[in-house]
């Protein structure tokens, strides 16, 4: 079982089983959400996640089709996960790997999404599949 939390610890979660996939996303919205060059998304079935605490949520149009909801701590503002009812995302949480702390290192990324938006100073990561959008298959 893996456990994650916000920075202040008021919202925590845990999940069982193995993630469906782990991907890096270079879209501008994910960059804004994380305040970084990309987000690292660990995709797990919603049914495998137990949440403790009351996260706040913000909904936004990705500009690529799906509407996403971000869950974050209302006190420390740490982004914890994203979710969407769009095909390919429904029924899953996209956990933000930084909310796991050192446990995140056990979930090696398999691919990079929205590669045309990758920061120009950041090279493609070795041995990761490259996708121009989100179509990574099942």
TrEMBL record:
InterPro entries given in the database record: CENP-V/GFA, Mss4-like_sf
Name one molecular function that GO assigns to this entry. Answer: carbon-sulfur lyase activity
**Residue span, CENP-V/GFA domain:** 2-118
Keywords associated with the record: Lyase, Metal-binding, Zinc
* Coiled-coil boundaries: none
Source organism's superkingdom? Answer: Eukaryota
Q: Does the keyword Iron apply?
A: no
UniProt KW Ribosomal protein keyword: no
Q: Which PROSITE patterns does the record associate with it?
A: CENP_V_GFA (PS51891)
Report the family membership.
Answer: Belongs to the Gfa family.
Q: Under what name is this protein listed?
A: CENP-V/GFA domain-containing protein
Q: Which organism is it from?
A: Polyplosphaeria fusca
């Amino acid at each position: 079982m893996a456990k994650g939390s916000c920075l202040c610890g008021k919202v925590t979660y845990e999940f069982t089983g193995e993630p469906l996939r782990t991907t890096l996303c270079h879209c501008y919205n994910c960059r804004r959400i994380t305040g970084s060059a990309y987000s690292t998304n660990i995709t797990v079935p919603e049914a495998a996640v137990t949440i403790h605490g009351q996260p706040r949520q913000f909904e936004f149009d990705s500009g690529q089709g799906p509407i996403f909801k971000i869950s974050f701590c209302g006190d420390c503002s740490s982004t914890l996960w994203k979710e969407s009812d769009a095909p390919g995302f429904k029924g899953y949480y996209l956990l933000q790997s930084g909310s796991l702390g050192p446990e995140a290192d056990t979930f090696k990324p398999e691919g990079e999404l929205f590669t045309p938006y990758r920061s120009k100073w950041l090279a493609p990561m070795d041995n990761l599949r490259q996708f121009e959008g989100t179509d990574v298959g099942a």
